[in-house]
Structures are given as C-alpha cells and as structure tokens.
Amino acid sequence: MVKWEFTLYMQDDHDGLVVFFPSGWFSIKELFSKNDFVKFSIKTRSKSIAVGNQINDIIEVILKPICLLKK
C-alpha cells in the first residue's frame, strides 16, 4: 500500500521498501510477522529536519488506517 503512494519517486524493494527523495530517503522493513501481527521499522534520512518531519508525517497518514484495522 505504501509503495503506490510514492510511485513518482525512485524505489528499491529488494529488502523491504526504500523510497528516495531529492533531499533524502525513507525505508520500511518488516521485522516480524505472525498471523495478524506485523512488526516493522521505519527509518528516515534527510538533509533537513523540516523535510524529514514532513516525510514522517506523510508515512504516518498512510499507515495510521492500517494500524487501526484490528483495534
């Protein structure tokens, strides 16, 4: 689901998902999965704090509905 939100940016999905922006990148990697439980890590790297925070906000908006599905 996240991959399709960033189709205009260069991506690498060899080991998780890495999306590259002009001023940085973020990665999402599954750490553990069992039944309905998934644990993953999100890393963000940016040349500026403002852009990094903006990327984190976008990812949160995309993932929030997924996290609320089983509650």
Lay out the secondary structure:
Elements: H1 2-5, E1 11-12, E2 17-21, E3 24-34, E4 37-46, H2 49-67
Antiparallel strand pairs: 1-2, 2-3, 3-4
CATH homologous superfamily identity: Alpha-D-phosphohexomutase, C-terminal domain
Summed over residues and divided by their number, the pLDDT gives a mean of 85
Q: How many separate domains?
A: 1
Shape: globular
- Separation, N- and C-terminal Cα atoms: 19 Å
Number of strands: 4
Number of helices in the DSSP assignment: 2
Portion of residues within helices: 25-40%
CATH topology: TATA-Binding Protein
Largest sheet: 4 strands, antiparallel
Output the radius of gyration. Answer: 13 Å
Given helix and strand content, the structural type is alpha+beta
Task: Assess the beta-strand content as a share of residues.
Answer: 35-45%
CATH C-level class is Alpha Beta
Short description:
Helix content is 32%, strand content 39%. The chain contains two helices and four strands. It has helices at residues 2-5, 49-67; strands at residues 11-12, 17-21, 24-34, 37-46.
How would you sum up this structure, described in words?
It is a single chain. The chain has helices at 2-5, 49-67, and strands at residues 11-12, 17-21, 24-34, 37-46. The protein has a single domain (2-67), classed as 2-Layer Sandwich (TATA-Binding Protein), CATH 3.30.310. With 71 residues, the protein is an alpha+beta fold. It has a four-stranded antiparallel beta sheet with strand order 1-2-3-4. It contains two helices and four strands. 32% of the residues lie in helices and 39% in strands.
